[in-house]
Amino acid sequence: MVSYSDILISNALIDDTTGLRIAVFVGGTSGIGRFTIKALVSTGITVKIYLLGRKSSQERTQAFIAELHAINPKAKVVWTEAEVSLLADVKRVCDIIKSKESRVDLLFLSAGYAPFGSRKETAEGHEVVQALEYYSRMLFTIRLLPLLGESPIGRVISVLGGGMETTYLIDLDDLDLKKPGNFKVYRARPQYVALNTITMDRLASENPGITFIHSSPGAVNTGNVRRGWDAGSTVGEVFSRVVEFLTWLTGFSDDESGQRYLFQSTSAAFGGRGVTWRGKAGVTTGQKSEGGLFLVNNKCDCTHNSTVVAQLREKSQQKVWDHTQAVLWPYL
Ligand SMILES: NC(=O)c1ccc[n+]([C@@H]2O[C@H](COP(=O)([O-])OP(=O)(O)OC[C@H]3O[C@@H](n4cnc5c(N)ncnc54)[C@H](OP(=O)(O)O)[C@@H]3O)[C@@H](O)[C@H]2O)c1
């Protein structure tokens, strides 16, 4: 485990020479993304942050942005309205960022929740959580790759379940879990985790100049557990209360979670670029210290989950890639 004190020491080294100038947060209106933005702005550096969010969150986010500007007047936080579950809107907003910026240093992806309730689809026909946690995240990544490649420290972080992949829980014949009876939270969650790792692993191998991290946050009391239930579910209410109590008891505080993700966003522990790290270097799924995908657990340790990832690569990667390309191509 990377100790919290080591993380704070590393984060204290973040300054204007570290190179993190432009960051894009998808999911930064709440929870872990929001805690990370606050930790980043609190470093006092000059940074521009694109904070993407849906219209319904705009008003409360304005108060957050005002708070951030008071903490650090050198931080420019740009509210950018986007319905990120819709791939057409992801394309639109990426085009806006591309028209304004010549590089992106950090793409931070944390929109989503566990889909405990019934299957719900976006207007584009994708299950909402799969759209948020997989298709939208991969589309942001692919469309912003050219700008990430222009950064000396370009980094993509997907906050979901890095290191928790399994082979037996991915349904290659029904990647979108559309078959009758196939959509259940205990199938969807591991499937979306595996899809993230499989596709990020391929993108990482094709783009060795960019650092890719698929990360598990551990337990953080963000209210996330309540999002996925159908309205009025009594089981959902009881389950959420129990999980929230356990998370309060054993999980990370908001501040620690934000600092841990700031560390993952900046430290040279992952790929050698960024804030100098004198501890153990992280190792990719390809067992290297750079040029690949880092699976980072809740303790900020890299776990290569090598047997599972090797099997996923061999048996699933091409099929997942072809399917993902077919879904994303209208927006590429
Ligand atoms: N927190 C944990 O303990 C934990 C543990 C394991 C995995 N995770 C996963 O890690 C990721 C980040 O977790 P978190 O706790 O930071 O989540 P969170 O606080 O619930 O925030 C999730 C983000 O997703 C956005 N979002 C939710 N539903 C949306 C929708 N239908 N359309 C558009 N945006 C939507 C939210 O936007 P609004 O602000 O507009 O609502 C928010 O920005 C999630 O995928 C979560 O499932 C979390």
Overview of the molecule:
With 332 residues, this protein is an alpha/beta fold. It has one domain (4-224, 254-331): Rossmann fold. Helices cover 45% and strands 11% of the residues. It has eleven helices and seven strands. The protein has helices at 4-12, 31-41, 58-71, 87-100, 128-149, 185-206, 224-227, 234-250, 254-266, 306-315, 317-328, and strands at residues 22-26, 47-53, 75-81, 106-109, 155-159, 211-215, 293-296. A seven-stranded parallel beta sheet has the order 3-2-1-4-5-6-7, sandwiched between helices. Helix 5 (128-149) links the parallel strand 4 (106-109) and strand 5 (155-159). Helix 1 (4-12) crosses helix 9 and helix 5 runs parallel beside helix 6. The N and C termini lie far apart (39 Å). The model has no long low-confidence stretch (mean pLDDT 96). Residues 27, 29-33, 53-54, 57, 84-85, 110-114, 128, 132-133, 159-160, 217, 219-220, 222-224, 227 line the site of NADP nicotinamide-adenine-dinucleotide phosphate. NADP nicotinamide-adenine-dinucleotide phosphate (NAP) binds at residues 27, 29-33, 53-54, 57, 84-85, 110-114, 128, 132-133, 159-160, 217, 219-220, 222-224, 227.
List descriptors.
single chain; 332 residues; alpha/beta; Rossmann fold; seven-stranded parallel β-sheet; 45% helix; SDR_fam
Which fold does the CATH topology refer to?
A: Rossmann fold
CATH architecture descriptor: 3-Layer(aba) Sandwich
Could you say how many structural domains there are in total?
A: 1
Provide the CATH superfamily. Answer: NAD(P)-binding Rossmann-like Domain
* Helix/strand class: alpha/beta
Which compounds are bound in this model? NADP nicotinamide-adenine-dinucleotide phosphate
